[in-house]
Amino acid sequence: MVKKISQIVLGVIIIGLVYVIYDQIATPIRFDNELKERKAAVIERLKDIRAAQRAYKAKYQRFTGDFDTLANFILYDSLTMERKLVDEDDSVAMAMLKKSGRKNVEQFEVAVIDTVFAPRHLTAQEVYDLRYIPYTNNQTKFIMEAGTASTGNVNVPVIEVRAPYKYFLDTVNYRQDIINLIDDEVNNFNRYAGLKFGSMESANNEAGNWED
Fold it and tell me: Ramachandran region of residue 94, left (φ > 0), alpha (ψ -120 to 50) or beta?
């Protein structure tokens, strides 16, 4: 009887050890998979915000630090585009155009929503939700700043939009993994512990840190 109980206890201990070893191996793999999945979603939304900000700057020569302003621009504003009237290789058409005194360019207006995200067409709700970091249940917004920075003797518009890792990763199930990730990024690589594009310190063509 005692021997049987000992065998049962030993079996439970072995099963427990196997689970601990498996969990130690599997947890980093699960975290790495989740990290890749969530980063991909955040990057896609950052790209959409960047596209909208670049369009805003093209029209107003500055960026905006307000998501409501950006959403209204996307939904209700327009951009001025140019197109050629005739093919420049068509000598007859070009001669007639020149004779009329007209330039071979005409301007036209196109709705921002129809061009910025093409070929996709975002709904009004999707445009409004651009402000929210994925995997936060639309509770946490991207940190967005806009202003100017000096380049030589010239002030140029700058923008920075960022999402810290701790905002969109699972800090409950992967607490230690996230602590290690942030420590590694900050102390070993001297990098921002999250995803972002742009810089408030200098004009960098709105580069994303995932593009390094």
Answer: alpha
| Predicted structure pTM score | 0.82
- Would 97 be classed as within a structural domain? no
- 104 belongs to a structural domain: no
* Number of compact structural domains in the chain: 1
48 part of a folded domain? yes
Is the distance from CB of 52 to CB of 70 less than 8 angstroms?
yes
Answer yes or no: is 61 within a domain: yes
Angle in degrees, CA 156, 158, 163, rounded to 5: 170
DSSP 101: T
Strand order in the sheet with 194-198: 143-151, 154-164, 194-198
For the cut 90, the answer to whether the pLDDT of residue 47 exceeds it is yes
Measured at the CA of 41, the angle between CA 67 and CA 76, to 5 degrees, comes to 30
